[in-house]
Write a structure and sequence with these properties.
Blueprint: H1 10-15, H2 17-20, H3 24-38, E1 42-50, E2 53-60, H4 65-75
Antiparallel strand pairs: 1-2
Length: 80
């Protein structure tokens, strides 16, 4: 376990991924919600469909180590 507490809003946004990913518009809306919550550029990439649904990744952009540390703090991940 990575430890720490997820900042309010982040957990809710991430929990909505499965529901929001049913449409392209839903994915774009979720990207915007996550970007607003994290104050960073976010991109959701769907790679392929499986029997259990789509698989992909979430990319969060940062431009410095300070920004990365801020994102990790918002996500509840302690600095290493």
């Amino acid at each position: 376990m990575l430890g720490g507490k997820i900042e309010p809003g982040v957990g809710t946004a991430v929990a909505n991924i499965a529901r929001a990913m049913t449409t392209v518009a839903g994915a774009a809306s979720l990207e915007e919600q996550l970007a607003d919550t994290l104050a960073a550029a976010v991109e959701i990439r769907v790679h392929r469909k499986t029997r259990r649904g789509e698989q992909g990744e979430i990319a969060i952009a940062f431009s410095s180590l300070d920004e990365l540390n801020g994102l990790l703090a918002k996500l509840g991940v302690a600095e290493a």
